[in-house]
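Bug: token stream looks shifted between consecutive jobs. Job 1:
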Amino acid sequence: MKFKILFRILRLSVQIMLFIIIGLFILGCATLGPEPSNPEVFFYVTVSSIPTGASVYELANDGSLGRFIGMTPYNIEVGLATRRYSNGQRSFGHTFFWANGIKWGKYKNEEKYFRGYWELLLQIAVVKEGYYTSKVTDKVVGLIGKLRSYPPQSTTVTIQLRPITEIHSPTTEQKTQQQQQQQQTVVLPDTSSKEQNNSGSVMLTSIPEDADVYVDGIFVSNSPANLKLKDGIHIIEVRKKGYKTDRKEIRVLSGSEVTLRITLDTD
């Protein structure tokens, strides 16, 4: 009789403990505060270029130009918000961020302190007429972690643009050879033989003809020209002495064939 009573008491105790553990798990994993819809603190990443007045674009995952976000010097406002969570025994944090041209990087563990941190990386391209396009990828601009300052300190990234000298002014002999061709096929270096399936064709004509054609800030040919471009967003500029420069932003799709007709206005 006593054995049965002890067994029932023991079974009831186990059930109560299970209910307590399950309850702590369900209630403890809830967010300690509502999920944020807006940033609570800010820091700034200033993108500067030499020379100034360059266009700043976000970079897509494939490395192509994405959305235009501003002109240098440009302040990227990085908004942050943090929430705490708990599993009933310990709590942990989660950080949300809002920014253009910024992405999460890798998680780094500091064994010395048994803590880690996340990297915030800059992912942009800087474009200016007469200069090579400069891409900034995986540049650490902030660290998010329990032992790191919150928000991170504002920082400045200065980009030295490289002028186009040799290709910027085609020689008379080169222009004569180009004028002899009614239509040229130009395959850019980015479009290798292995990537032909990921490229599209842009047939460019201009009025007047024999205008200089630039793709992403690099001189490639004279009009008319048949351009083989890697899929993604490209900046095409058509220039001719005595006329205003015409600039177009186009998205090239894999396997596509696009006709682009440009009429230049006199200066």
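Job 2, same session, no restart:
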Amino acid sequence: MPKLFWEDFVEGSVAEYGPRLVTREEIVAFAAEFDPQPMHLDEDAARSTLLGGLAASGWHTCVLVNRILVDTLIENAHALGAPGVDEVKWLKPVRPGDRLTVRAEVLNKRASRSRPEIGFVNFQLEVRNQAGEPVMNVRDVNALDIDGDFLKKENATLAILVLGGTKKRLAGNYSRENIEKIGRDELARWNGGGDKLTQRLNACVAKAKPAQ
């Protein structure tokens, strides 16, 4: 199965990954190393805490979710890493024996202004246990490669949209014969016609031109 590029992620699309079993042993081992609080280390001590029993550290849950995504979504995409996480909310304790599933929704996406070969995808992640109860919500952003053949697979207008970083006057369907003029005008308006992007535009224009 081909790996996914930035343009393969569609706003509003949803996918599920997992499940992943959470064991008592790994809860205690993670807590002992990174978050040694009573509610994560010992059943008896945990009963008198706010969690009312042994539960995984919230940071442990984050790591487990990351592993689920690395083994599925990230492994099967041209992923470049993540510049950050906008929000993490722990909603319910994760207990020994829980099986976690991640529901990932594409909120929005954008091409990079400074590096047109890269795009960013914002995800809303909902983590649920085996009973379907939400245990954690995460809103994060991931960087992905934009396919070098994007221009071939989509129309020329969208390719210029990616290169130029602007939607101005590009909603219509322009003929491929006009792509070079439109692209150069938009590129010059955006960054003064920088050499690097101009060279990239030239390469994409060549791909877009119909065969003679």
